[in-house]
Amino acid sequence: MTKLIIQIPCLNEADSLPDTLVALPRRIPGIDKIEILIIDDGSTDGTAEVARRFGAHHVVRHRRNRGLAAAFQSGLDSALAAGADIIVNTDADGQYAGEDIAKLVAPIIANEADLVIGDRGVGRNEHFGPIKRRLQRIGSAVVRNLSGTEVTDAVSGFRAISRSAAQRITITTEFSYTTDMLIQAGRKRFKIVSVPIRTNATERPSRLFKSIPQFIARQLMTMGRAYATYNPLRTFALIGGTIALVGLLPVLRFLALWAMGDGAGHVQSLVLGGAMIVLGTLTGLLGVLAELIGANRKLLEAALGHIRRLEQDIATLKDRTPPSLDWRGENGSDKEAA
User: Fold this and answer.
1) Which run of H or E residues covers position 193?
2) Is the pTM above the cut of 0.70?
3) Residue 136's closest CA among 148, 149, 122, 150?
4) Residue 330 predicted with pLDDT over 60
């Protein structure tokens, strides 16, 4: 039996959540069971209660706001624990058309993809302004280069992921999961597919960021950090090589002056250049050390994946255990996270 869980991270979405839940599909070809998971990221407007009233099967509550990335990761962990074979993430504000979930999961059902990204057609989307369209195209191009993928809409939150792929993803950023997840997926050689989707106009401003410059700055930090995590040697070698090359210029200046008999009084160029070359070399050596640490990280990620599978196998066995044999006497689908 193939089980799909649709997860929706929420922060004070009591007003918009009902329409979003009503629009979600209840039947999809190739899917035997569909459940809805709400991640209430510290809402104060009764979002969790609204979710239960409108048929959410699972509700995970953060006692305080922890950010979109943490909410997304909590959703993945809870969906896997609930036995999801496919997980779809969508927004609570109704930006994405619920009917398009069938298009998202189709490549995974056909075993043609590990991760499917909904492409909003940012270059021609009528709900985006001209500046946003241009920034989206530039940002997606940067992410494609960093991740080694062909994703055309890198920051789309409408995406589907298979169970095996979700077990290997751990979001490390505190801002947004979108680019971090793609860079991880690209470096872990996931099969990634983009499918065109429809979008709806949203009235309220984004709660993720206060201004476009802030969004750009935080996304650049997220992309840089994620890339350095999975390509440490290349990152530090590039930085160290740049410093060393800049340091080589004053050294060459000194040598040229010295060759012309005018080296006296220009020793500071030699000292400065030498210091920068040493600094560049040390930075490159840090890259070697970071690469070795990265090998240890891969072992830890593999161990984490095995632990997740064991936990989920135990949860599956618990679900199959008759209530009279469940010595813990646990039931219900609400969970609370710190």
Assistant:
1) strand 192-196
2) yes
3) 122
4) no
- Tell me the sheet residues that pair with 8: 38
CA 174 centroid distance within chain: 10
User: Would you tell me how many other CB atoms lie within 10 Å of the CB of residue 261?
Assistant: 7
Predicted confidence (pLDDT) per residue in 102-111, tens digit: 999 999 999 9
Residue 141 exposure: Cα atoms within 13 Å on the Cβ side: 7
Residue type, 152: T
Please provide residue 116's backbone torsions phi and psi, each rounded to the nearest 5 degrees: -125, 125
With b for 16 or more beta-carbon neighbours within 10 A and e for fewer, the 108-147 pattern comes to: bbeeebbbbbbbbebeebeebeeeebebbeebbebbbebb
- Can you give 202-237 as a three-state secondary structure string? CCCCCCCCCCHHHHHHHHHHHHHHHHHHHCHHHHHH
Q: What is the pLDDT of residues 18-28, one digit of tens each?
A: 999 999 999 99
CA distance 282 to 290: 12
Q: What are phi and psi of 302, to 5 degrees?
A: -65, -40
